[in-house]
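re the bet — no i am not wrong, look at it urself. input seq straight from the record:
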Amino acid sequence: MIVLAAWMQLLGCYALYRTSRHAIASADKRSVWLQHRRRAARWVGMALCLLAFVLFVDGLGWGAGILTGCVAWMTAISLVVILFPLFIKQKHAGKS
């Protein structure tokens, strides 16, 4: 259950990141859908993050669940913001 919550947290953060106007655009189907339907993508991202947080609290209890949820959220946001632009630039750099 903890791994499922971590994956949901990461996917929710990714959805919220892709709704930003400052995010680097890519041409895959998920990114295009998320960028064209920003309001729906924000709701999906927030719902995934909230559901992941609830799963952390349900699996670990109130104190450890809240702490683990906050740490997982900070880690997921950091990974998405730092690594995703590097992946996109590396992907496009090889085609030049």
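see?? Residues 2-93 form one domain. told u. also The chain has four helices and no strands. so pay up
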